Fold each of these.
Amino acid sequence: MRGATHAKWAACAAAVALAATACGGGGSDSGGGDGSGILSSSWGDPQNPLEPANTNEVQGGKVLDMLFRGLKRYNAKTGKAEDMMADKIDSSDSQNFTVTIKDGWKFSNGEAVTAQSYVDAWNYGASLKNNQKNAYFFGYIDGYDKVHPDSGSQSAEKLSGLAVKDAKSFTVKLNQKFSTFPDTLGYAAYSPLPKAFFDNHAAWLKKPVGNGPYTVDSYTKGSQMSLRKWDAYPGTDKAVNGGVDLKVYTDNNTAYTDLMAGNLDLVDDVPASQLKNVKSDLGDRYINTPAGIIQTLAFPFYDKNWNKSGMEKVRKGLSMAINRKQITQTIFQNTRTPATDWTSPVLGAEGGYKSGLCGDACDYNAGEAKKLVQDGGGLPGGQVKISYNADTGSHKEWVDAVCNSINNALGNDKACVGNPVGTFADFRNQIGRHKMPGPFRAGWQMDYPLIQNFLQPLYYTNASSNDGQWSNKDFDKLVNEANAETDSAKAIKLFQQAEGVVRDNMAAIPLWYQNGSAGYSDKVSNVALNQFSVPVYSEIKVS
């Protein structure tokens, strides 16, 4: 899920002028042999408070996945959208939907989950005044332009396209046909919210209440969040462990060291510096599986120097100056695969992945790269500065490798330099304020397994995660047509045409597809990552 904002590690708020250390210690708590102990896992503080519609990065998403259950849930192995709280979602025209929810669901505070719980949550998420980062996900519901206008004040408080029929059903009217709309409803932004969220919002933010298999026991920013199994959880996917302690680290190398020392049970992003040793260190307790993640370099199109005529040649030239194969082999030990499109192979051909769609623009060709950069007018300011968050040991290595590749291709050892930004929070804030001096690290972890999700949130005009502010009318038109198409095969072809527009303009440079990686201790078992590269926490057994 969650925007080009995905970072695997965040800052420890208290770590100032200190060596990188875990902000919490200790391994698993024994469960008496039945697998129900407490799991300890590496984590990073979320960028924002844990409102479902305001979380579009991985760390917060991990918690929401434990606290909430929505209408749909994505199968951990296949990524397929399956009914969770939804009893059925009916439509005869791909524009008007009737949602019926299952009986027996409650929030952990005892409130019943009703149709109103969904409608209130979606109205809150869409409203301009609530400033939710994922408001865009409600953009296809009728009346969104009134509650969240592009400019000016909102003229309505609620989405006109939502209506409660009774306690167990509500209707959704979209502003255009969107045949795969039901499959998007496993995304956390569509979670229901209890009345407590609205009655005492400040208290809820301090200790969120959801309807998932875990509850929040405590949270100390910069240190740890403790979640505990909710014994009365009504779903079928009950937690088999007693809870999860998410421990904040400023450096994933430190997390890995703690894992090896027996002070941590799970690291869900093995640092690049340890990839050469991880198999000998952990044996079959190391996981390396394909995931719906792509890493890219985004551009600041709000800077006229990067958005003027000819810059598309410069961007393509930079792409061709990057030796993806060499970098993925030497830096990432083949836990990454060179990207040849802007989606992910986990979608499969039927889901919209098209190997080679990028064409020669993703092939390393030093001579052509140098020519294109020169033909496009040269590098803005004579140098490329690639920005990245420096609170992890991983990004510097590959950014330096990318710059070395560009410098060698262009025959200029100062053509490209890394531009480290202290923490993930600082990095995201600079991106949000449109302060990037050049290309910047970006990545996308799919919110749901549809080609639409790899394109629209990132490249559609004013989309929620379009951090570079790229805009193209042809792309927008093709996306709108694809969303309206009820035949999935025809829709995918339209999306691929839209992806061709991204390619022709090199709206972002695709780098590599990322595998999900994790390592775990001998105190835990049944560890797996889902197709979003997130641990399936509820299924992990702790001895």
Amino acid sequence: MAYPWHGSGRPAVPAELRRQLAESHGDAYAEEVRRSVRVAVRTAQASGTAVVFGGHFSSGKSTLLNALLGGDLLPTDDFPETGVPCRIVSGARERAVAATAAGTVELAFGREALSGVVSLVGADGEYREDVHGVHEVRLTVTGGGPAGRGCCWIDSPGIDDTADVHDRAARTAAAGDALVWVVDSRRPLSVGETEFLREHRERTGTGAALFVVNAFLSEDTTAGWQRFLSRADYFRERIAALGDAETEVVFVSARAASGGPDFGLGDVRDRLDALGLRTHPSVRTVRLHRAAQALARLADDAAARRDRLDREMKEAARRRSELERAEAAARAECMRNKTARLIADGFARLGHEVRACGSAVAAEMGDSGDLSRDGRYAASLSRRVEQVCDALADELMAAVTEVAREQLHRPPGADVRAAVGRRLHPGELTLNVPDTPLGKARGGAGGALGAAIGTMVLPGIGTLIGALAGSFTGAVSAADAALSRDREGAKADALRAAEDAAQVLDTRKPTVTRLFTKACTPLPVLEPATDPAPLAVLDRLHDHLWAQAERLTAAGAQACVPRCGRTAPAEDGR
């Protein structure tokens, strides 16, 4: 019966998937997965088989193995005796080695030496603790041992003793390729045995490969043996009730067989020889199930790695988001502060420049000559103030735009420039140029003097001219004084108008600040996209391995079907 893979059908990680794994998770992980899959396949295809002898303590496992080996090698007793698994293989030279926590220890080959290592109960009748430091005893026998290259028999500790020994028996049974369950005829299939076998089926995908009912005869004779066999159906029914109706059942009296006639020992050996083949249905089921479990564990590991990576990526994204929010808040605060400072500095300069506009217009009025009363001074002041306000608006736009770019904010647009320009317009500026009537006297006095001189020739002319000249001089002085007062009043009003404009503009500072602050909002910062490849490749690996595991599980279940009463065909490389 072939295994369910040939060539391209062998469970493996496709080359492209391995390349993607290496690219996203490193060469080491890709190689680990490849090697783990390969080990699972090779283990399932190994030529030799490990047959574990299990059962209740003192059910006769060690006695049965001694009978098979044709000697008295393994310690036996009516009380729990074997506390350490004993692995038996065939070889050219007898050898006993104990595998301990400290390393391997060579033992003398014989019952006494083995008893000192594996026996649960010491000579004083007390349980020994030192057996827990021995992992396994490995025995090489030269005759009567398991047939076939790489095959071994394992004498397992009995169940229903201490919890530690029970657990060691369960681990030993699960690690084997086939379980031979030795049933004590005196107490067949206790509750503990039934539970143990149920758990074993869950772990390995199959129950015991063979039930060996060990008969404790009242007298180790052929007649006693035949009387026992007459009750064989009772034991078969008990075993069938476990749900193992297809499992073979053979009968033996190990104690009686040790002393002479066969007593069922030949049947046991025939079944053991069959279990030595890797194609035996039970062996095949266990191995496929074990390979499926290995692949399922790899699949679960990939899923766990994927979930862990997903959490790490989300946590990293969360930290980036928190950092970005903190940085964005800091940038926004910096944007507000710098904008407010720029505007405050600009408005401070604006006040000085607007007042300077008033002084400039006052200078236009001069210190002599006539004053213009056609509104030119007010127009000049308005034009000058408008120019410095426009200059400030442009300056603020440039400076705030630079800060916005620096702090990752939207720069102010043309609509903001227009709105700021409107807010920086102080309105129509008026300027009062006084017009004192006395100021016209100078022209009238000159005309009168000319007329008098030109038309009057009277006696005492010198006296008259002197009087007129004196009157004219007084009129001119009065007119100059009036004009000077008008000029000073006009200049003062120009300064006053400029001061008023400066104060009005200063009240516009909060509005201008709000215009810029409202327009310059933070730009959305695009977070770097999370690379989905590392997660996706783990998903694909999980799905691939899980599908392979399910395929092997189905093949193992199918292998269970043709077990009853059949012997596996011979195969090269047993």
Amino acid sequence: MTETTHQDTGRTGLGGASGLFAIRLATGLVQGLALYLLYLAADKNAWPETQPALFGALALAAGYGPVVVLAAAGRIKPLALALWTGVAAVVLALLGAHDVARQSADAFRQAPFLSFPVLAFGAAALFIAHHLIVPAIRERRWIVDYPEYFDVAWKAGVQLALSLGFTGAFWLLLHLGAALFKMIGLSFLQDILREAWFSIPVTVLIFATAVQLTDVRDGLIRGVRTVALMLLSWLLLVITVLVGGFLAALPFTGLDGLWETRSATALVLSAAAALIVLINTAYQDGRPDNLPPVVLKYGVRVASVLIAPLVILALWGLGLRIGQHGLTPDRIIAAACALVGAVYGVGYLLAAAKPGGWMKPLERTNVVAAVLSVLVILALFSPLADPAMMSVKDQIARLERGAVSARDFDYDFLRFESGKVGTAALDVLTRSANAETARLARAAKARDYRSGSTPRDRRDRATAIRLQPALGQTIPASFTEQLERQVDQLFNCTSDSPCTVRTLDLDGDGREDVLVAMARTVLAYDQDAEGQWRLAARYEVSCSRNAEALESALSTGVTTAPAALPDLVVGGQKLQASPEIRCDDTRRR
């Protein structure tokens, strides 16, 4: 395959290469300073925690906004560059502010408070939108010829990859040099690398420098792109054979195994995405002089037909999960990805089936899908289609209509995974007329960590726990009724090795506490004001020879002894001692 080399006709008069380098260097300096000031604010000041939405907005805008200047400088006129950068920064700030504003207060523990999805999808939306807008500005048309989109986007992709690689290599060399100096007793470079005032601005400046270096050697970048596209295009044959074999085997294997993976939607959408990318590496800009070999042309047609079945499978599996368990933010995002995948699937299928120009409808499909992707991302990470809000409404509706019982309802989802709207809904459930719903909602509200499994999973695990009372004692009924809350600690208590349980008033409050002896640990549980059992302490056996008879010893009796070392109060904080245990020390502790 060959690739037509086009001169970059969109260069603007900004003083040539030196002028562009000055602009990019200044942009890197401003971005580095802004990010460092935000870091200082998060580390030293209280306002980021009192105004987290503002901090999140500034962080996302400062992190991604200047990249627009780095990428578009010299390609569009200064006024257009300023307007597009301003619009991008404002939209990014709004996305960041909304992402932080919807989170619960528990999330505001570490700046920049932004969730991973908004960081990932925000970057994707900016990349796509930038390479739709810049060609339109250059050509002064809303829609430009497809080769222009291809040229700008794929060149920028290669440039981005090389710039990130250059920045990573720079840091590897710095750490190598620091290690060399460290060997001879000089740690100054290692100390400097750990300082934010150095690492943040230098990283941004090096990235800006890399963008400039890759930009001035336009022919080199196009050559690298040509080689990369050629290599990747031949991988299309591999994934086409694999996906074709997978789809051909489904009638014989059935779909049960696929659904049991609980990740079927993500897997098949990933396969569809791989097909889409590799098809485009073979198609390139669609010019007659860039047509691939005959074998790849047939491979592109076959691969284009395979996308639609994969998307149908993804939608099918997603529909089953939503029907069984309702909406969650992840399922809503997956549905949005499947929607974009459906556009690709239909468009590529029509392109493969349509006679005439080889795969020509693919070009319009790519542009439509790109625009749709940006719109979907903006909707998902704004109040228009907030996944958390939609999920909470759906889950509460399922509980109210009886699609899920109060015992099986995932209260932890409201508590930990759906932000402010979820905690507000959980507060309402704590006052529910249904006593079991209210009790379980209060228990979830009191927890400070997610259990890591669904209510049904916890109940199944709780039924497998085996406990035996100490001699002459009984296990409190309320404790066994609440075993679902303790499955993460009592998973070793099985029918083959049941754990011994003894009651004892440990803290002198007049109420019985529960001790559970396992192999090398005794767990102590107490009750809160609402009667909920909670883990209060762990007693560890440090000497292996003393652990063998632990459970039998607890069964016959246990006493308490005063602590060997007192607690310390330092700066108003209470510190508890953790004394070293020596196996040859026979003194009582």
